[in-house]
Fold:
Amino acid sequence: MSSPVVAHGAPTGFIRRYIFSLDHKVIGIQYYFLALFSVFLGMSLSVLMRFHMVYPDAKVSWFEKLWPTGAAGGIMTPELYLSLMTMHGTIMVFFVLTTAPQSGFGNYFLPIQIGAEDMAFPVLNMLSFWTTFLALVVMLAAFFVPGGAPLSGWTAYPPLSAVGPISGPGEGMGQTLWIISIAIFCGASLMGAINFIATTIDLRARGMSMMRLPLTCWSWFVTAILGLLGFAVLLAAGVLLLLDRLAGTSFFLPAGLSINDQILNHKGGSPLLWQHLFWFFGHPEVYIAILPGMGLASQMLATFARKPIFGYRAMVYAILGIGFLGFFVWGHHMFMSGMNPYSAMAFSILTMSIGVPSAIKTFNWIGTLWGGRIRFTTAMLFALGFVSLFVTGGISGIFLGQPALDLYFHDTYFVVGHFHMIMGVAAIFGMFGGTFYWFPKMFGRMMNETMGKIHFYLTFLGVYAIFTPMHFLGIAGNPRRYADFTNFEFMNNLMPIHKFMTHAAIFTALVQLIFVFNLFWSMRKGKKAPMNPWDATTLEWTVPSPPPFDNFAGKHPVVSHGAYEYSVPGAAKDYIMQSDPA
Amino acid sequence: MLLGAIVWVLAVVICYFFLGHYWWFPPPISEHGQAYDTQFMATLWVTGIIFFLAQVALGYVIIRFRDKGGTAKYSHGNNTLETVWTSATAILFIGLVLAGTRIWASVHFAEAPADAVRVEVLGKQFAWSFRYAGPDGKFGRTDLKQINDQGGNPFGIDEKDPAGKDDITSASLKVPAGKPILLILKSRDVIHNFFVRELRLKQDLVPGMEIPFHFQADKIGVYEVPCSELCGLGHHQMRTTMEVMAEADFEKWKQEQAAQK
Amino acid sequence: MARSATTDIIGGRGAPPPTRDFGGDDGDSGGRGASRRASFTGLLVLLAASVMFFAAFTSAFFVRRGMSNDWVETPLPRILWVNTGVLVASSLALELARRALRSGRRAAFNRYWTGATVLGALFLCGQYLAWRQLNAAGIYLATNPSSSFFFLLTCVHAVHLVGGISALGYIDVQALLLRLGPGKRTAVDVSAYFWHFLDAIWIYLMALFFFWG
Structure:
């Protein structure tokens, strides 16, 4: 029988409770709000980008106030456009998609879902948040230094990113700060991975075997492993790039460079080396961005269809398969790079193989819904939307994974449409859904369902309107990362699509204000939430909303059931909680 | 349920736009281009059907299995179904890749024919330059220090090398129709990418590398070439054209260029 | 209750933060057992990341070496062999210290552990001397790709070692202040294993430079 926990005092004082808290729940919320701030910043940048693409000569007076050099006279210069684009990608990928689903929700709910009091290393956890915060500050500082933010894209390919300001504005201090910020972020990620992995392996409650773990926990676990291995390589790449920039080395810089009438004296380095290192990280990174969303979708679909997950074991293997295979496909970002064309075929076959576990998950989600009793809460709507968007976004990958077809589609809007659908939308829907699902537990109140549903429908239609046309632009051959399209005849016919997308983007961005309003309004005025508003089975629904600082108030939960025992024939209710008696 | 209907409508609308070819590839101008389009259509049909069926299935379960009272079916899955649809997916996806292998091989594994017209392509921030060997058939040596963009020597052809005296430098690519062309792609600063939509081909230009790339264009015309790898603030202005002309016209052009030297 | 050993490795200095006691002594979670196991798992994760970090540099090393004709083998200063010996000796000292601790010989533990810490610091000094010797021979970070990797890899290893010495030093101070209770056993073990790992990485780097440098 369990004995009560040796009491350690609950934290007191504002600083201990809210700023330098060791409580994984507070840290999770801190990460969530860091990501929320970042997503609005990133979204604003993208609206500015879309505006410039269709009105490149527009004079906007406050552009000049914000960017006196980059928008002199109120007209956005191409270099300013490119730096906004670089920061948009960087902020979204790192500070939103790598942060909220994993460090936000994961930090809050992993310990509770496995029946633990906290993460394995609470001090490290606190440090990991503040290190992430520091990384964000350094990243944003790039906007304010002479030359501004870098313009080499979130992918920072050398030589463009390695030779300094002679290759473009923003390539001076801005690029250096960018690299330093990413390096700091790598450290923060590692700290988080240590906690997630040790907690999952060592702190599970009695009876919580690995095969009884909710799929959210599996996804956080595998995501942490991906981050652990991937970010270490990114850090190495960043160090090499920094040395090329500041110390005169030639890791990525070949001989024979003449830029802006200056002959550089580098020798023998390889721009392709950066691409290999970067994408070795970069591909697992996109699985880091999507796996927690998949786990969350599974969780919500089962809860609101009142059915067990279809093929739990297959789902676990699919998560493991996606994680494992994700390390062997990085070359599909480099089909046109000049790398060995035979290796392109190898990468291609492996890339297609990854489609298989992804398809398994999609079939199983539909299988979960089949025969269910679906309750259409806002959380469920987002989970269903996630499935639809995941199909749409994933399907375009089948084109890009073939080098033969990539001969046309590489670096066109087809690619932009693909990754936005899958990361910029599906993953975001996972976060929205997770918010509606777990808000009651985190804040003790329900979010407003009416506002939630309006936000959902308008956003769902909005994102399809913004990102589906990108595939047509790609088919028409419209290249990406262009500040405007006025120099090419064939792009003139495509302007109506661009205008449509811009209007859809502005509309959808404004709709997000409904979500923000709902979030903050509900924290104060939402209906009080019961312990288990969704009649769900996992351990977080056995503790009060919000939970006490040590989660289980000194008790040790004992688990006797799997995570998805819904509608069990013969049971008293249509769900059995994991810690219900056997 | 509203969401189910929306998903169905979206699936139909998206398929409609793809089938309607409203914004589409320009017509291909080579055999490779035709083979490309065939592979693309094969992929489009396979993925389009999967896309449509998946969205329809999703919409269907949303509508059919909404909560009407009663109990849900308690099931942990179906291993047979799992095996069947997993295998089908694997076969389809890998099949598509293998089908496209020939196209990739013809571009990258096969060598250019020995009689291909050789053209050097130089990418720089933010313009294209092309070099032909001239009547002596030899490219002159290049020297970084002799680069002179204003003076019409972007390649930095070494004036001390007699082989370079007759080299033809051009701001746009001119090629004869119906003959194999071998491009040697070079960059003197950052990564660029040479892309011709009508050829269905593109290739990065990487500093420190000289990348051979061959094709054959069969239809006469002028085709736009947009740089397709971010190269700096002028990336969107880095434009040139590929002009495919009758062989006789191509020879005439070369003679005119040689005469001007 | 053992303070998170990983924090020792990474954060090193400063006052110990309040401890989180997982309490109870049954079940899989809770109890000192879980915390000790978790610390080892955490260490394993850290080591895996570090291996990937060095692996990335190694692959860059071989790629760069294979593609350039400007690779000039960096002559290894003789002192590096001495440094290697010092580092191996420090690992041995750590093991003797842990054995002493297990059989309760506190004084012996203090001697050996302090010795290991001092040897570790000596290693760093020796590395610095090696760098100075190369500089004196006109070999700097950017001189050629081989020297770039040499300085890079030795520097990265040294940074790891600074973390390791902080951990060793912290334990040393706790021991000398008679504050090394049974609860800190995990910290002792984790620090020692991290140190041995750095030792192994160093031997790997020496082999890399010697055969392919």
Observations:
- The mean pLDDT of chain C is 85.
- Chain C has one domain: 53-212.
- Chain C touches chain A through 52 residues (CB under 8 Å).
